[in-house]
C-alpha cells in the first residue's frame, strides 16, 4: 500500500532557487572505502560520482543542500566548504550517500581495512582528499550563481526495499542479515525544484537505507542504488539534477542485495515512485501554514 501523498507549494516567483553539480569521480585509482576486505586498487568506474547542490533563498537567508557520492562527510571537508563560502554552518546541509563503492577519504573510517595501506595508495587518498573541497565549493558556488525566481513543491511517497539489518535472537544481536520485524523507515519525501515557468530544475529525495547493494567484491566506483536513482531520473528528465540523501539508514540494508541487478532493481523502483509523486496533483498538507 502506498503512503498517503502529502504536498506543499511555495507560490511561483516567491523564492530564489539555483542548482550546481561537479563530477567528483577520481581520475586515478583510489582505494575504495566501506568494506575492510578489499586489498587492491579499483579497476575503473561503473558509474559516475557527483557533488550536487541546491541553493534556496537570497541574502542572509540563503541555504544550501549538498549531496555527495561519498562514504561520509569528514569534518575537514565541511570546515573547508564553510570557510570558502563564508556562510553560517547552520545554513549548509551536507549529506553523503554513504556508498560503499566510493573513494576512501582522509580521516573517514580509517581503521576499516584489515591490513596496512601501502604508502603509494595513501598518497593517492591524500591527493584526492586535497582536491575534493574545491570541487564541492564549485558546485555550491554554481548553485548560488544560478539562482532565479522559482518554486518548490514537497511531497511524500514510499519505497519498500530497505530492510532492518540487525538480526536478533532472544534480544541479542547475532550478526547482519534481514530482521523481518525490525524497525525500518520506508518514507520517501521528495523536494521538487522548478523555475518560474514550471520547468523542472532539480529533485531531492531522502530514503533511509545503506548504499550497500554492491558487496566487497565490487571494485569499481559506483553510487549504488542512490547513484542509479539519480542516473534514471536525469535520463527521464533531461536538464534536471537529481539528488539523494540517505537519512537515518544505519540499521537498514537494501533487500535483496549483492549484485548490479539488485542496484538496477532498487534504482528503478525508487525512481518510479519519485515520478509517480511528481506526476500527481499537488494536494493540501499541514505545511500550507508556511505559505
Describe this structure in words.
With 291 residues, the chain is α+β, with helices and mostly antiparallel strands. Helix content is 24%, strand content 28%. The chain is built from 4 helices and 15 strands. Strands 1, 2, 4, 5, 6, 8, 12, 13 and 14 form a 9-stranded mixed beta sheet that branches. Helix 1 (75-85) links the parallel strand 5 and strand 6. The longest helix has 27 residues, at 119-145. The radius of gyration is 19 Å and the shape is globular. The chain starts with 6 loop residues before the first strand and ends in a 12-residue tail after the last helix. Mean pLDDT is 89; it is low at 1-5 and 281-291.
Question: Termini separation (Å)?
Answer: 30 Å
User: What percentage of residues falls in helices of 4 or more residues?
Assistant: 10-25%
Quickly count the helices. 4
Radius of gyration: 19 Å
The major sheet is characterized as: 9 strands, mixed
Strand content: 25-35%
Q: Strand tally, please?
A: 15
Structural class: alpha+beta
Overall residue-averaged pLDDT value: 89
- Unreliable sequence segments: 1-5, 281-291
What is the 3D shape? globular
Q: What series of H and E elements makes up the topology?
A: EEEEEHEEHEEEEEEHEEH
